[in-house]
Amino acid sequence: MTATGWVALGMALFGALSYGVGSILQAIGAMRSTSTVRTLGHPLYLLGVGCDLLAWGASMVALRELAVYQVQSILAGSLAVTVVAARLVLASRLRGRDVAAVMVTIAALTVLAMSAGPQEAVPPSGPLRLGFCVAAVAVAAGGWVATKVGSPGVVAALAGTAFGGAALSGRALPMPEESANTAAFLLALIMEPMTLALLVFAASGMLLYTNALQHGQVGPVTAVLWIGEVVAPSAVGLLLLGDSVRAGWQVPAALAGVVVIGAAVVLATAPASSTTSAETAVVPKPAAPVPALSAPLSAPLWPSLDASTQLRPFLDQESGVIRWWGPPVVDRYAGTFWWWGPPTSPQLVWVPAGRRVGTRFRGTARVPRPEAYF
After folding, report:
1. Which of 78, 146, 195, 346 has the most CB atoms around its CB within 10 Å?
2. Helix, strand or coil for residue 67?
């Protein structure tokens, strides 16, 4: 392998690491949201998307030098990264078979790294360009239907197919001839049909993966995702894009690919993979019954207070509840900087007496307040 090939291999390994960390962040963000739209705006999900973008860029660089099956199989090892990261970050339990699957994955990825032969650049023909564009639209349409009637596994499989299609599009994408005019170079790249197919595949995969995470467990969803992302794209790369296997390494490469997929299935059942699939439910304790009065009251419960008396909160020693007679300290306002969401949405905010935060909601009307909290 040449020096450029080793650099490409390093980029593929970096992509696997970034994908593994991104899966954890996206899963937590998706489980803490109530819809796909809200998930896309969650900060943890956005951070996970940033990791995915780094991994995607690294994989595009690797695909210029390495075979599709090689890069995609290495990226599939990100599930092992996900399991190990869940153990370190979330203190999840690792079974003996999970540790063995991680070690087997590392060994299989080593075999795959050594099995790639010289890759030939195949200029995409007109029918190939048309086929990629039609496939991108078909996967997007099928994914939309699957989100309405399908299971998370079907949605995850289509997401993996979409990501695999993006990898194939990046592998087959012809670079325009170098020109001193940068605008002409970018225009030629944008007008290339393979670029359109790449963008449609990538956007469809991201949305479908988000939907699958929202309705399924992160481990099985991610395993099905990588199976769909490795199998079909690898076959297309070998048959249509000029990918080749090193002489004498055909059988070891095939076995290593099967081992990676099998290890991914084992890791999908790991407790560390399903840690973020459900939030811990907090069951409130029932309120204590109010004791009956043994005799009629001869005096009011609270003494009458003069209007000039300064009101202060009173702590009920038995129930531990703070009684407050002054202005409400919890109100509905909008535009606070610590809440993630549209600035026009009402929310409950703790406000000290005499202070206000931006715009107050009263029913369905917005009442502007001139006082600022800070």
Report:
1. 78
2. coil
CB 11 within 8 A of CB 58: yes
Angle of CA points 262, 267, 270, to nearest 5°: 145
**pLDDT at site 179:** 54
CA 106 to chain CA centroid, nearest Å: 24
pTM reported for the whole predicted model? 0.61
Spatial neighbors of 27 by CB under 8 A, at least 6 apart, are 48, 213, 218, 276, 277
Q: What is the DSSP string of 133-146?
A: HHHHHHHHHHHHHH
d(CA 327, CA 88): 46
Nearest residue to 212 (alpha-carbon basis) of 57, 77, 39, 47: 39
Which portions of the chain are predicted below pLDDT 50?
276-288, 301, 305, 307, 309-311, 315, 329, 334-340, 353-354, 356-374
pLDDT digits (tens, 9 = 90+) for 294-342: 555 555 545 554 545 444 555 455 555 555 555 554 555 544 444 445 5
Q: How many whole angstroms separate alpha carbon 328 and alpha carbon 243?
A: 69
Q: How far is CA 132 from CA 166, 174, 192, 350, in A?
A: 10, 14, 12, 54
Q: What Å distances lie between residue 177 and 120, 185, 188, 199, CA to CA?
A: 18, 8, 9, 21
DSSP-assigned letter for residue 241: S
Q: What is the pLDDT of residue 76?
A: 78
Query: What is the side-by-side order of every strand in the sheet holding 330-334?
Result: 347-350, 330-334, 359-362, 365-368
Instruction: Write out the H or E segment, with its range, that includes residue 1.
Output: none
- Contact (Cβ atoms closer than 8 angstroms) between residue 358 and residue 335: yes
Using CA atoms, how far apart are residues 163 and 173, in angstroms rounded to an integer?
Answer: 15
